[in-house]
Write a structure and sequence with these properties.
This protein has five helices and six strands. It is of the alpha/beta class. It is globular.
Length: about 180
């Protein structure tokens, strides 16, 4: 059952993101598992997407510490994992892509909560809305690809990225340790 909806969770097999300037939101399109055709569409607001990204960065240890800055070792590990995911063409052209999905017109529901659960070495990404929920199992590389796609949507929107984002990583490491990753 959905965590906040009381309804069954729709299993997903693919996911795409794109910023919609008219709505000033990130539009997600997903293909439910077990269906040859058909899509689900849902919206992510800037506030919810930002909070979710902050939580993801915290799980990788890239959030600010008591010193007010992320730990350099955590940032380096995170950067290496993100670089590896970006180089993995299977995740870039597979089931997670901004370009793969055709964004059809139709009903689009508002996501009110995002959640990631760790199950062994895999992750489960959940989207919850009023009376609806959907979930997508992910490897670490696929989760990194989701983060990358969300950061791309943030960039397209001109929205500020969370402190621990990959796109901010190069500047952070160059300043703190004289390194450059991106």
């Amino acid at each position: 059952m959905g965590e906040t909806t009381g309804s069954p969770v729709t299993a997903l097999k693919s996911l795409g993101f794109r910023y919609d300037a008219v709505e000033d939101r990130i539009r997600c399109v997903a293909v439910p598992a077990g269906l040859a055709t058909g899509q689900l569409g849902f919206w992510l607001t800037q506030r919810l997407a930002f909070q979710f990204m902050e939580k993801l960065h915290k799980s990788f240890g890239t959030e600010k510490t008591e010193s007010g800055r992320p730990e350099p070792q955590a940032m380096t590990r995170y950067g290496a994992a993100m670089s590896q995911a970006k180089q993995n063409t299977a995740t870039q052209i597979g089931r997670l892509s901004e370009k793969q999905q055709t964004f059809l017109e139709g009903e689009v529901w508002l996501v009110t909560k995002l959640s990631v659960q760790t199950i062994g070495k895999r992750y489960q990404l959940f989207f919850f809305g009023k009376g609806r929920s959907a979930g997508l199992p992910l490897s670490q590389a696929e989760l990194m690809r989701v983060i990358d796609m969300m950061e791309s949507a943030f960039a397209a929107a001109g929205w500020k990225l969370p402190q621990g984002s990959y796109r901010n990583l190069g500047a952070y490491l160059a300043e703190s340790e004289g390194q450059r990753l991106n």
